[in-house]
Amino acid sequence: MVQVLIPSQLIAYTAGATRVEADGGTIEAALDDLDRRFPGLKFRVIDEQDRIRRHMRIFVGQDEARDVRRPLQPGDELMIFGALSGG
Amino acid sequence: MAQPVQLLVGSRKGAWIYRSDADRDAWQVEGPLFLGAIIHHFVPDPREPGVLLIAASTGHLGPTIYRSEDGGKSWTEAARPPAFPKAADAATARAVDHTFWLQPGHASEPGVWWAGTSPPGLFESRDGGRTWDSVAGFNDNPMYLKWCPPEAGTPDGALLNQITIDPRDPAHMYIATSTGGVFESRDRARSWRPLNQNVEANFLPDPYPEFGQDAHYIALAPTNPDRLWQQNHCGVYRLDRPGERWERIGKAMPAEIGDIGFTIVPHPACAETAWVFPMDGTEVWPRVSPGGRPAVYRTRDGGASWERQDKGFPPEQGWFTVKRQAFCADAGSPAGLYLGTTGGELWASGDEGASWRQIAAHLPEIYSVVAAPL
């Protein structure tokens, strides 16, 4: 299990929860797990080519992830942020 | 006679519904819906009362579609929004940035919807907008990269910006794009061919190419679907099928106004009548009302002549911009006209454009206005 920080832009999917748990050995697998429980969430963050959307940022601990295939370890903290996107 | 109307308004920051009384005189507002979301198009299903679809994205999140079955009281997100097929090379593969246009399918095909996206893509839903599939006949067409070159497009991205369906034949379709112009299909979107003869593209070395035009808006005349109206980046055009050659009817507009604009609205009951909302397309393309004096122009003779209609609009210092989906007519008699501006104003005419009044102000930048019976 990894801990996931949910940004304000996505709490409509998680019934208001800002911290949830997810199961998965990669970022993509964790997002797939979240999407099963919170349908539609993954596509708002990751496009159909498995790229992180331009104005979303994902960190594992202090490290920013560029690739959803990045491995996760049990206990990792996965943080999803809405980046700066203009007015 | 007039009947109550609802206006579905999509904006850069959410959606609103304005509902009129029987005289289309008093309006009640509901909203905002999806406050903060970019609402590109907000469309009713004429085949299924109460069903509404919204094409949305946000500054951060990817694009999606919402569906309501109770006139906007409650909404369900699409289980599978429009998305291109996964490609072998992810670095250059297409991803839908936003759905720009939602089109209810033919009257004989309940539940079918079509969507046009940026970058240009055509998508179909057969379950009322809950799941969407890429239409290979356009999206994987061998000519796709020539019709929709990746480097081309509007400041907001290249668009497949309209889909129209012949009311006599669900297999006969037209689409408009910002990179290739107009295309026609006679086999229900399986194959497409350019339909741009005599339409100018003054930004290309060959100003009258087979494709490459920027078709801002196309519409069929409701009472004569052999007549197509087009507001192009390079003027106002009309095409009468089975003809192939567009006529630049905007040449009859006053020279000081020109025939540049984003949209054209056909009359619901008269195939000779249509309205445009001209914008300044000179020099650096201000894209505002010419001279700061907003007006619509109406033709009642198929584009041979045009008359100015500006009563009620600001007589000066009115710098309106009206985008592609933000000007529409209802089906009343006389027809009501409605337009939304990028300055967040909603204007209405209950007398076919003879006079105008503002029915809302202070909204966010308006992207779309669609009128439907209440």
Outline the structure in words:
The complex is a heterodimer of chains A (87) and B (374). Chain A is an alpha+beta fold. Chain A has helices at 27-37, 41-45; strands spanning 2-5, 19-22, 56-60, 63-65, 77-82. Chain A has a single domain (2-82), classed as Beta-grasp domain (Ubiquitin-like (UB roll), Roll). Chain A has 2 helices and 5 strands, in the order ββααβββ. The longest helix of chain A is centred in the middle third of the chain and has 11 residues, at 27-37. The radius of gyration of chain A is 12 Å and the shape is globular. The mean pLDDT of chain A is 95. Chain B has a single domain (5-83, 96-373), classed as YVTN repeat-like/Quinoprotein amine dehydrogenase (Methylamine Dehydrogenase, Chain H). Chain B has helices spanning 136-139, 144-147, and strands at 5-11, 14-20, 27-33, 38-44, 52-57, 64-68, 76-77, 98-104, 113-118, 121-125, 133-134, 160-165, 173-177, 181-185, 193-194, 215-221, 224-232, 235-240, 261-266, 274-278, 296-299, 307-309, 327-329, 337-340, 346-349, 357-360, 366-373. The interface between A and B is medium-sized, with 21 and 20 residues.
Considering the chains and any ligands shown, give keywords for the structure.
heterodimer; A: 87 residues; alpha+beta; Ubiquitin-like (UB roll); 5-stranded mixed beta sheet; 2 helices; globular; B: 374 residues; mainly beta; Methylamine Dehydrogenase, Chain H; 4-stranded antiparallel beta sheet; 2% helix
Please give the CATH architecture of chain B. 7 Propeller
CATH architecture name of chain A:
Roll
CATH class of chain A: Alpha Beta
Main beta-sheet annotation of chain A? 5 strands, mixed
The low-confidence runs of chain B, each spanning 5 or more residues with pLDDT under 50, are none
State the distance separating the first and last CA atoms of chain B.
Answer: 14 Å
Number of strands of chain B: 27
What topology, given as strand order, has the largest sheet of chain A?
2-1-5-3-4
Please work out how many helical segments of chain B DSSP would assign.
Answer: 2
Radius of gyration of chain A, in Å, reads 12 Å
Proportion of residues in extended strands of chain B: 35-45%
Element pattern of chain A in H and E: EEHHEEE
User: Percent of residues of chain B in helical segments?
Assistant: under 10%
Helix/strand-derived category of chain A reads alpha+beta
Count of discrete alpha- or pi-helical segments spanning 4 or more residues of chain A: 2
**Average pLDDT over all residues of chain A:** 95
Percent strand of chain A: 25-35%
Coarse shape of chain B: globular
Mean pLDDT of chain B: 96
Name the chain pair with the biggest interface and residue counts per chain.
A-B, 21 and 20 residues
- Tally of domains of chain B: 1
